[in-house]
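A further point concerns the way the authors explain their paired sequence and structure data. An entry of this sort, consisting of the sequence and the corresponding backbone structure tokens, reads as follows:
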Amino acid sequence: MAMELREKLEILADAAKYDASCASSGTEKRDSRDGGLGSTEGMGICHAYAPDGRCISLLKVLLTNACVFDCAYCINRASSNVRRARFSVREIVELTLDFYRRNYIEGLFLSSGIIRSPDYTMEQIVRVARELRETHGFKGYIHLKTIPDADPALLAEAGRHADRLSINVELPDAGSLKTLAPEKDGGQIRVAMAGLRARIDEAKEARDEAARVRVAMAGGRRAAAPRFAPAGQSTQMIVGADSSTDETVLNTSAALYGSYRLRRVYFSAYSPIPDAAAILPPVAPPLVREHRLYQADWLLRFYGFTAPEVMAGGEGGMLDLELDPKLAWALKHRAAFPVDVNRAEREMLLRVPGLGAKTVEKIVAARRVRSFRMADLARLRVNLRKVGPFITAVDHHPRGGLLDRADLRAMLVPRDGLAERAGVLPAGMAAGMRAGRAVQLPLFGAA
């Protein structure tokens, strides 16, 4: 008996949960007010929420969980004893349109196991995107997982229809990839990523040139520039399936950002799978490790840190699991602090624990017309407990010898009320906050 569509959706949506790279940011703005269907801006979309609180606004699904490859870490490997399912191109297209019309989603994230061959699988994926765009006028967000071994012409067509493309590097270490996924070629993966970068760069240059021409023509009409994955490309690494350290992961990430201008490197904590090979770890890594890697990645992309600087806050090639990477770095570089929030360079403010990138921009802009006090930082929702030891302000200087105290780390390890009792905040500040005179601290501090 044929499998019901709902059964397929249950199997293939669940199988897609291991792919983390599905954010819908960074593309061009499009909507259907002048015809077509959908938008990339999310207006009027009813978002669903996963049990862990993540916002889900894309139909995230596999074309099929059948695969001819036998990657040891993959639940959908050829030798895995899992229930298999496969959508037709028409079924994926209709599901996407139906879910969009019901306001369940704002777009599609489509990946697949390898069926028959890389070219055949990629052709099926491209057909879905082509039918959505050309047959149905769908203008919502489309993210396609691409197959590095596929014909470059198929990858080129994928980029014409998709907002973002991604190719998974799978593991941070090339040797581990060869051992755990011998049918995948790390060199070919990087060749494909380089090809995507070249096409993305060419399309961006063409768009920029078209914009300059329109300005020169005082708004005159001109043929549209070619479109190719305007939201760029991303990748994903599995963390904890091999012996790679956090240092290896971050060095690989930094190299990928530099070489291929990726928008994001996503991390996916290894999850033990049934009938796993003996070479794989029997237990998952601590989930907080994945969280710390994302925080470290943020420092690389937005805070001016290098991978070696981030790793200087850890030990033995691993990040500190108790503290966020910026705080861990600051505690090992205490001589650089405290910094004056009213005079310090933007680059140094970005290294202060508790100050996020947007907050730093607000401080730099506002201090041109007034001097900052701690209450001003509180109004910006800065975590004063975290920032207090590392800054000076008009009305605040860290208590004598605080930065030199051997137990400063213990004061700052996130525990309810500990920092307040230990005197990290200036005298009277904690009492003032309790009385409601100054601030109400945010539940979560800035990175």
Residues 186-216 form the longest helix (31 residues).
